[in-house]
Structure formats: structure tokens, C-alpha cells
Design goal:
CATH topology: Spore Coat Polysaccharide Biosynthesis Protein SpsA, Chain A
CATH architecture: Alpha-Beta Complex
Structural class: alpha/beta
CATH class: Alpha Beta
CATH superfamily: Spore Coat Polysaccharide Biosynthesis Protein SpsA, Chain A
Radius of gyration: 16 Å
Number of strands: 7
Bound molecules: guanosine-5'-diphosphate, magnesium ion
Number of helices: 8
Number of domains: 1
Strand content: 15-25%
Order of helices and strands: EHEHEHEHEHEHHEH
């Protein structure tokens, strides 16, 4: 089996090499490939990626212009050759050392889709982010009859066959909601396990904002009332 790790990155020169090194270092009991998708970074991230792109098992896609995290993840998924995929942000908010704990539930055949839940992990959120996350989670559960505890988590791990035939269109941070609800609509059971999470600040380079929250809400509502599996 092979694990494809997709890393969307935009202007993370300070952390991109460290996160790649940590991803390479973690033992997951299967082959790994790393696919980095750079959204036309301008802060030295590209130069850092040049130093990483020739390592075996590493692919770097350089976008000509920034299209959003969702677009980057989707491009990465198109290139993935593993049976299992995992999304990894390029900041240091979550820890690659948690991969084995996430993967074991997929490898055992217990589930095809697993989310790392920051809420189950007891993470401390900043007030605005806590409110936005809670609104998205509550709305998801109300509209889709689920009991999810985290939706916007970056740690989404899944067998590629679980998304086969599913068409995604969101390009920004709203992709997280689209991904979640399209799988739910297909009848996929999403299992959650606790993960640790150390939020960074906008000063540290956080990019998600309120506009993304509103777009995400639209995606949740729209997909609830359009055709099954659409
Ligand atoms: N390629 C690409 N990556 C992006 C873009 N916007 C954000 N990212 C990356 O997506 C990840 C999540 O971004 P972040 O601001 O930390 O959002 P949060 O963790 O959801 O609050 C980071 O690795 C960012 O560098 C984009 O437009 N293009
Ligand atoms: Mg982040």
C-alpha cells in the first residue's frame, strides 16, 4: 500500500522545509509519496521547494497563480498514486507524528475515511475561530444528521476509492465542507480520532478568514438541497 500526502502551500517559507522533513521522518508502515502544491508563493517558499523537489517520492507542482487551498488539494489528488491519501497543511498547527494513529483505522478496514478532530483532542481555539468552527460543525450536523465534532480540520485521511467518481468544484477553504458533505451524501461513514492542534495567528501567516466561513456555509446549504452524490 502507498500513502499520498498532499501539502497545499502558500507563503510558508518559514515552515515548509520543516514540515516536509517531519513528514519524511514519520514511519507509517507503507510507502509514502509527498505531493506539494505551491500557490505561486512569493516569500521564498518556491526557492525552498527547489531544494526538496529532487528527493525520491517527492513531487512539487508550481501553480502559475494562487487559486486557493481547495484547488491545490484537488490538483494534488489528481496526481496521487497511493491507495490512501492524507492532507497536510504546511504550517505547524498539526503534527505528522499522528499519522500512525490516524492510518490504523483505515488499514484495519474499520473505515475508509478518517478525520483528525481538534475538538476531541481538547485543543484551545482563538475566540473567532472557535465560533466559526462551531457554526460550521453545528450546521453540518443539523443538515446532514451527523454527530461530527470537527469539519475544517486539515487531517482528512481516506482511501482513494472513497472519493472515486466524486466531483469537487470548490477552490478555496470551502473545499473542506464540500469534501465532507459529498462523502456523507454518498453514505460514507466518517470516523474521527482526537488530534493535537496548536493554532497560529494571522501574524504567523494564517490565511483563512470570515469570507471563507460564509462561503463554507453556502456550500453546506447548497449541497444539502442538490441531487444525491452531486
Ligand atoms: N496552494 C495553496 N495553498 C494555500 C492557499 N491558501 C492557503 N494555503 C495553504 O493551506 C494551508 C492551510 O492554511 P491556513 O491559513 O493555515 O488555514 P487553516 O489552518 O485552515 O486556518 C497552509 O498550508 C497554507 O499555506 C492557496 O491559495 N494555495
Ligand atoms: Mg493552518
Amino acid at each position: 500500500m502507498k500513502l499520498s500526502i498532499i501539502i497545499p502551500v502558500y507563503n510558508e517559507a518559514g515552515t515548509i522545509r520543516e514540515i516536509i522533513a517531519r513528514v519524511r521522518g514519520v514511519q507509517v508502515g507503507m510507502e509514502k509519496e509527498i505531493i506539494v502544491v505551491d500557490g505561486a508563493s512569493s516569500d521564498g517558499t518556491r526557492e525552498n521547494l527547489k531544494l526538496e523537489e529532487n528527493f525520491p517520492g517527492t513531487t512539487v507542482i508550481y501553480e502559475e497563480k494562487r487559486e486557493g487551498k481547495g484547488a491545490a488539494v484537488r490538483k494534488g489528488l489528481d496526481r496521487a498514486s497511493g491507495e490512501i491519501a492524507l492532507i497536510q497543511d504546511a504550517d505547524l498547527e498539526v503534527s505528522p507524528e499522528e499519522y500512525p494513529g490516524l492510518l490504523k483505522h483505515i488499514v484495519s478496514g474499520e473505515t475508509r475515511v478518517i478525520f483528525g478532530s481538534r475538538f476531541l483532542g481538547g485543543a484551545k481555539f482563538r475566540a473567532a475561530s472557535l465560533l466559526a468552527n462551531r457554526i460550521i460543525i453545528t450546521l453540518t450536523n443539523l443538515l446532514y444528521g451527523t454527530a461530527m465534532t470537527d469539519v475544517l480540520t486539515c487531517y482528512k485521511v481516506f482511501r482513494m476509492d472513497a472519493i472515486k467518481g466524486t466531483r469537487f468544484e470548490c477552490k478555496g477553504f470551502d473545499f473542506d465542507c464540500e469534501f465532507t458533505v459529498k462523502l456523507l451524501k454518498k453514505g460514507e461513514k466518517i470516523k474521527e480520532v482526537p488530534i493535537s492542534y496548536v493554532p497560529r495567528t494571522y501574524g504567523d501567516g494564517k490565511k483563512i478568514n470570515w469570507k471563507d466561513g460564509f462561503k463554507s456555509i453556502q456550500v453546506l446549504v447548497k449541497n444539502r438541497f442538490t441531487g444525491a452524490g452531486a
